[in-house]
């Protein structure tokens, strides 16, 4: 790879959070030292002007303190820097600095130091021009064939060419049919200005035609005055290149000159009269270019930088060299630095300045001789076993999937069969729908699918639902009568967790009492326990794929089981799995009177913390939605104003509307990202809330020994929604359902039954009312209240609750 990388000779990083563009770099002998060594002049949009004279001790060194000759901060952003003969009465080089509303010309000089600190450099303002219009770029040259001095031409944002004869303003001309400014250069051979318009045309204007044309300040004159005072501005030649131009440059060689234009996809070489000499289609999006004369080869070479961090060297249309840069160049120059000719100077938009050269460095590395030795097979076997052990341990913590096979069997012939499988997120399926044409009678169809965890939180349920819709044809209806068959299936616990070391400490602990002797955990959880480990008879550790650890302990003497974890919601799946496996175990032993009870306190405070966390994320979602709406309205208003400005035949200043549009766009993107992140957090919080809610329902049912119907009422009350939305959320739905229970079957008096509940649900201001009603529900149940769907009172009010049987 060393063959195709630019050899770093000297580099530095300019400032912090500064921005640069193609006009911010200039390489010339700006201090008129006469030694033939160029200096690097860089200006930034933050207004910093820096001049460097690199002197690396060895190639690849960074900047030393003495390499920076001058650094001064000007008040205005620097759009472009150029070096030329800009001061009358002398042919010394001076520095021209273009600001948005000002052109300044400085003299750079150095004073020989008398002490060890070295020479001192400073800039002196020779003159400046205040511009009436906002500048875009500039070019310079001996306009009109003058000798020994350079004139300056500035292009404004509204299409006016302002020409300055050094210390004095000469005249200004508007370009015909102007919409947006493009790159601008000057050809001394034809004495003409060449630019690329927004119509994707290369246009040439003679200096003499500009000088004799109607003055830009006399646009309001009458037609008779225009005819007597000047001529209409016409182009010398025009060429349509079919794309926007990034830069334009004129190179003179062997008594001829060529115009090079860098487009978005091609670069063009034109003759003086606008005819195409050649063009080259580029493989990558270009960022800058520099045509230069190769005296040794007698040709014109072109350096082209692109957005792939590459710098290509073309000789006409032939690619001669390609080199890798550490950054995307926005400006490239060639200069003579420290007696080294042809140093390539590149500048990135973030301020990475690098001087490099093309070539290769010889590789001094020699491969050492390999020592021959006999193979020790026993040592290799031990190493292989260790590696296999490491691989086995690492695969335990990776995401797993479970293969399920679902079989469809029908006693009758059916048609148009469609099988849909659903699991609760964050669980996901490889396939969720299967379609069959026809199934003959007494035949079966089997499908295979995998279930896996897709997310960073455990699910609230390990159950799936399979629904088959089909049609049974009859004699009267050959198309078939639509029917539906449905079944539920359980998913294994190993899908979301794996065995782990038990933890001795935990923030949350639950104790489940039973009426049967304790069962060995090795027998209850054979898929998690090691049969040879006697310690796992009474204690077992689980670890979710998301990282949480849960410990299960069985008492040796009493009939109790303890589940403990750092998070309340993580207790739910293990607790449910424990009770389910205990019931299955005693069913196999034909023990019908097995029961589980809970005598501890229901962890309502920890449960309320999860409710508050979920509710806060819902409020944040509302805030993000309001802010996005406001920024969208602002964005559309700015777009309308910009569109009005662009449609206007007489272009007016944008008044920073483009800056405001870009700032608003960035705010919208940032708000959208924040809203998306909040939505993901809210989904996780709702999943955790459902797990904790299921745990609370189970503890209440074990505590009060509720029947199956009463547990169903409690589940419909606390889990009315499968998913949370801004229009109808969990908090208001549960609050309305609990209020209905407190007013009907759990009411204490007829006064409470006479209370009228609101029929419109909306997001509450806080969760204090909901938490109060949940606490009151537990108190009423503790005092003997019982859940039922009917009441003895005569007052009945219909409540529409989504998914809740309590509202029927």
User: Approximately how much beta-strand content do the residues carry?
Assistant: 25-35%
Multimeric organization = single chain
Q: Please state the CA-atom Rg, rounded to the nearest Å.
A: 41 Å
Number of alpha- plus pi-helical segments: 11
DSSP, total strands: 42
| Distance N to C terminus | 75 Å
Helical residue percent band = 10-25%
Low-pLDDT sequence parts = 218-230, 791-808
Q: Please state how the strands of the largest beta sheet are arranged side by side.
A: 37-39-40-41-38-42
Structural class: alpha+beta
Estimate the mean pLDDT confidence: 84
State the shape: elongated
| Largest sheet report | 6 strands, antiparallel
Brief write-up:
This is Bardet-Biedl syndrome 9. The chain has 808 residues and is of the alpha+beta class.
Q: What secondary-structure arrangement, pairings included, does this model have?
A:
Layout: E1 7-13, E2 25-28, E3 39-43, E4 48-52, E5 61-62, E6 68-73, E7 80-84, E8 94-98, E9 102-111, E10 120-130, E11 135-141, E12 151-156, E13 160-165, E14 168-174, E15 184-187, E16 192-196, E17 201-206, H1 207-212, H2 223-229, E18 237-240, E19 245-253, E20 256-263, E21 266-270, E22 276-281, E23 286-294, E24 299-306, E25 310-315, E26 318-324, E27 329-337, E28 340-348, E29 352-357, H3 377-396, E30 401-410, E31 414-423, E32 427-429, E33 433-439, E34 443-453, E35 463-472, E36 481-490, E37 497-500, E38 508-514, H4 521-524, E39 539-544, E40 549-554, E41 560-565, H5 571-588, E42 596-597, H6 604-647, H7 657-704, H8 708-718, H9 730-743, H10 750-753, H11 768-782
Parallel strand pairs: 1-5
Antiparallel strand pairs: 1-29, 2-3, 3-4, 4-6, 7-8, 8-9, 9-10, 11-12, 12-13, 13-14, 15-16, 16-17, 17-18, 19-20, 20-21, 21-22, 23-24, 24-25, 25-26, 27-28, 28-29, 30-34, 31-33, 31-35, 32-34, 35-36, 37-39, 38-41, 38-42, 39-40, 40-41
Helix pairs in contact: 5-7, 6-7, 7-8, 9-11
């Amino acid at each position: 790879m060393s063959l195709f990388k630019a050899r770093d000779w000297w580099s530095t990083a300019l400032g912090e959070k500064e921005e640069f563009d193609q006009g911010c770099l200039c390489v010339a002998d700006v201090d008129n030292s006469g030694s033939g060594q160029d200096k690097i002049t860089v200006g930034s949009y933050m207004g910093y002007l820096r001049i460097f004279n690199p002197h690396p001790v060895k190639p690849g060194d960074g900047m030393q303190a003495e390499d920076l000759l001058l650094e001064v901060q000007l008040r205005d952003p620097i759009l472009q820097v150029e070096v030329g003969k800009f001061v009358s009465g002398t042919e010394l080089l001076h520095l021209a600095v273009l600001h948005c509303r000002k052109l300044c010309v400085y003299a750079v000089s150095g004073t020989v130091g008398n002490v060890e600190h070295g020479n001192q450099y400073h800039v002196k303002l020779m003159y400046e021009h205040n511009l009436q219009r906002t500048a875009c770029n500039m070019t310079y040259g001996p306009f009109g064939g003058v000798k020994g001095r350079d004139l300056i031409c500035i292009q404004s944002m509204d299409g006016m060419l302002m020409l300055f004869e050094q210390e004095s303003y000469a005249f200004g001309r508007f370009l015909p049919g102007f919409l947006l400014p493009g790159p601008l250069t000057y050809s001394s051979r034809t004495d003409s200005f060449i630019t690329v318009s927004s119509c994707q045309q290369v246009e040439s204007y003679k200096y003499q035609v500009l000088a004799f044309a109607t003055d830009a300040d006399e646009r309001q004159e009458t037609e008779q005055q225009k005819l007597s005072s000047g001529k209409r501005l016409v182009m010398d030649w025009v060429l349509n290149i079919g794309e926007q131009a990034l830069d334009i440059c004129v190179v003179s060689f062997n008594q001829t000159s060529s115009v090079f234009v860098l487009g978005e996809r091609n670069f063009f070489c034109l003759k003086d009269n606008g005819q195409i000499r050649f063009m080259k289609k580029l493989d990558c999006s270009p960022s800058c270019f520099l045509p230069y004369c190769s005296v040794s080869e007698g040709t014109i070479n072109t350096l082209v930088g692109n957005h792939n961090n590459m710098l290509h060297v073309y000789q006409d249309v032939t690619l001669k060299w390609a080199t890798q840069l550490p950054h995307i160049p926005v400006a490239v120059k060639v200069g003579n630095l420290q007696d080294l000719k042809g140093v390539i100077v590149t500048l990135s938009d973030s301020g990475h300045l690098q001087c490099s050269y093309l070539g290769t460095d010889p590789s001094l590395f020699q491969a050492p001789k390999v020592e021959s030795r006999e193979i020790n097979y026993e040592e290799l076997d031990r190493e292989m076993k260790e590696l296999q052990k490491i691989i086995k341990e690492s695969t335990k913590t990776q995401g797993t999937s479970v293969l399920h096979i679902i079989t469809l069997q029908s006693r009758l012939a059916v048609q148009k069969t469609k099988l849909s499988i659903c699991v609760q997120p964050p669980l996901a399926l490889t396939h969720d729908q299967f379609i069959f044409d026809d199934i003959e009678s007494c035949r079966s169809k089997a499908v295979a699918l995998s279930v896996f965890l897709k997310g960073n939180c455990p699910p609230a349920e390990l159950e799936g639902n399979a629904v088959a819709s089909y049609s049974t044809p009859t004699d009267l209806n050959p198309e078939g009568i639509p029917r539906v068959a449905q079944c539920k299936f359980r998913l294994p616990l190993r899908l979301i967790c794996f065995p782990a070391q038990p933890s001795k400490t935990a923030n949350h602990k639950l104790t489940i009492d039973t009426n049967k002797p304790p069962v060995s955990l090795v027998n209850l959880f054979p898929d998690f326990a090691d049969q040879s480990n006697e310690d796992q008879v009474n204690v077992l550790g689980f670890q979710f794929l998301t990282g949480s650890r849960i410990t299960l302990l069985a008492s040796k003497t009493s009939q109790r089981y303890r589940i403990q974890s750092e998070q309340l919601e993580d207790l739910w799946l293990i607790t449910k799995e424990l009770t389910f496996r205990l019931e299955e175990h005693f069913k196999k032993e034909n023990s019908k009177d097995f029961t589980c009870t809970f005598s501890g306190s229901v962890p309502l405070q920890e449960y309320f913390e999860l409710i508050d966390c979920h509710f806060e994320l819902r409020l944040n979602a509302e805030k993000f939605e309001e802010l996005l709406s406001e920024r969208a309205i602002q964005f559309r208003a700015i777009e309308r104003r910009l569109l009005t400005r662009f449609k206007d035949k007489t272009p007016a200043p944008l008044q920073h509307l483009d800056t405001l549009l870009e700032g608003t766009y960035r705010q919208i993107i940032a708000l959208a990202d924040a809203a998306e992140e909040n939505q993901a957090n809210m989904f996780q919080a709702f999943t955790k809330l459902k797990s904790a809610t299921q745990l609370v329902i189970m503890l209440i049912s074990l505590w009060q020994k509720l029947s199956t119907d009463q547990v169903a009422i409690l589940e419909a009350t606390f889990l009315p929604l499968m998913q949370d939305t801004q229009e109808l959320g969990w908090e208001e739905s549960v609050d309305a359902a609990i209020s209905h229970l407190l007013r009907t079957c759990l009411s204490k008096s007829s006064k409470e039954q006479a209370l009228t509940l609101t029929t419109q649900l909306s997001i509450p201001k806080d969760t204090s009312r909901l938490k109060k009603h949940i606490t009151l529900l537990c108190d009423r149940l503790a005092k003997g209240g019982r859940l039922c769907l009917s009441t003895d009172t005569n007052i009945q009010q219909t409540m529409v609750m989504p998914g809740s049987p309590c509202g029927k």
